[in-house]
Amino acid sequence: MNMPSTALLNIAPQNSSSLTLSGLNGYSIHGDRVIISASEISNHRHADNLSGSLSLELWALDRPYFGGDFDGVALAGVQIGRVQGQHLLVNNHHDLPFTAPGAGTWTLTLMLREWEGQGFVTRDQVQFAQPYVVERKAAAAVQAQADNVITVNFAAAEPRAEVVAQAAAVPEPKAAAKAPAAAPADRRLSLNEASRAEIAAIKGVSKKLAEAIVAARPFASTADLLAVKGMGPKLLEKIRTLVRL
Length: 245
Hints:
Distance between the termini: 31 Å
Oligomer: single chain
Radius of gyration: 22 Å
Largest sheet: 5 strands, antiparallel
Strand content: 35-45%
């Protein structure tokens, strides 16, 4: 894993957003913790205009971000409250739990997002020039204690062909034609359709959080789940493979 301990970028955003990140912004990763920093978070609106709740989030994206919807892995995030028009927050430093992304080459992006009643909207962002690279672990097959049992490290995309062959209990006759494999059914739980009890049955999701998810849906993207009280980036990443919209 290529994990830079620090990555900083000095920027002066030039965009039409009334909420901006400026000055020196960056991140510093220390094991399972990350410190995200933003020199200035400014509200350029009229003095009587109070912003919505703001969230400062570090994301790993599979491509550079140019605005609009996006998909990626939430690495860390914190809600920082609301800012009055013509005011700013300075020297923002937050020590947060860090969720590493999966294998790949990622563009790390610091986002300033504002709550708009139905979800968070990105108002400004800082993209870090240095790519964040996570190497894929090689698959490792380990001989099991009983016959015809194979243990596979599923960090790889799929087991090797020879491992699958060893795991078969009885070989098929050579003359028998193999039926085409059926597409696997999507067994993930739909958060937009499931009942409160079904959502609460997910490991790590409390009944209170399940009620909050039901009350906040429908969700347009998995990133909107971070707006639900009690749902943090680490929990979202933990249940990501178990749920869908």
